[in-house]
Amino acid sequence: MAYAAKVAAYQERLEKAIDRWLPPVDRAPERLHAAMRYATLGTGKRIRPLLVYFTGEVLGVDARRLDGPACAVELIHAYSLVHDDLPSMDDDDLRRGRPTCHRAFDEATAILVGDALQVLAFEILARDPDMVDDPQLRLRMIAALAQAAGPAGMAGGQAIDIEATGSRLALEQLEQMHRLKTGALIIASVVLGALSAPGLPGQRIAHLERFAENAGLAFQVQDDILDVEGDAATLGKSPGADQARNKPTYPSIAGLENAKRRARELHEQALAELEGFGRTAEPLRWLSAYIIERRH
Q: Over the Cα atoms of the chain, what is R_g?
C-alpha cells in the first residue's frame, strides 16, 4: 500500500476509534460533549497516532491493539491545543482551518473540554480491552504518557514558552523548550507503540526513543519554518503568529536557512537510530521525511 493510502487508512481508523470513546452529543451535558467532539473529530494531521500505528506496524503488532494508545496520545494533543488557544495562553482564533474551541463555544467550555479529554486519554489506557494484556505494560504506558504531558514534558514546555515571550533565548534553550513542549509527546507516541509489543528488548526501545526525540525536534523546527513561510489556507491557522507575539523560534534565532538545515540534520539523526531495524522500519523512515517536508 502506498504511504498516502496507508496514512488515510490509519486516520480513518483513528477517527472511528475516537468516536467510539467520546460521549454522544445527546447525553448531558450536551454542550460539553459537542465541544469535545468539535475539538477532536474530523481535523488534524494525526502525526502522533500515526507514530503509534507505524511503530506497532514495524514491530508486527496488530492494529487493533494500537487503537487505544493512538486515541490516548491524540486526545492529549487535542486537549493541549484547546488550552493553548485560550485567551490566557496564545489567544488564537483559528485552529485546523476553523474557529478555535473557545471561539466556537466559550472559554469556560473550552477549559472543561481540555480537562475532559485529558482524563479520557488515561481512562482508555486503563480500560481498553483490545490493548496489550500485561498490566505492567499498561502501567508503563500510563506513566510514559503522564510524564510526557506533565511538567517534565508538554506542560513544562508551555510554561517555559510563556515565560520566554519577548525574550531572546540561546538556541540550546530553545531546543530544550521544544523537546518538552512538542518532543515529549512524540516520544511517548513511539514508546506506546513499542510497549504494545510484549518482550521487546530495552535496547530496541531506546533506539526508537532516540528516533522519536530527533523526529520530534525536527517537527517543531518545521513548524517554526512554516510560521514564516506558510499561509492560513494551507496551515489551517494564522501564520506569523509567533513573530507577532515576539516568541523565540528557530528562524528568529538562527535564521531561516539554518533552521531548514537543522531540520534535515535531525531527520538524518532520526534515520540513523533505525538502522538496526532493517527494511521493516520503512514506515517510520517515511514519516520522519514527511515531518520535515510537510507544508501544513
A: 18
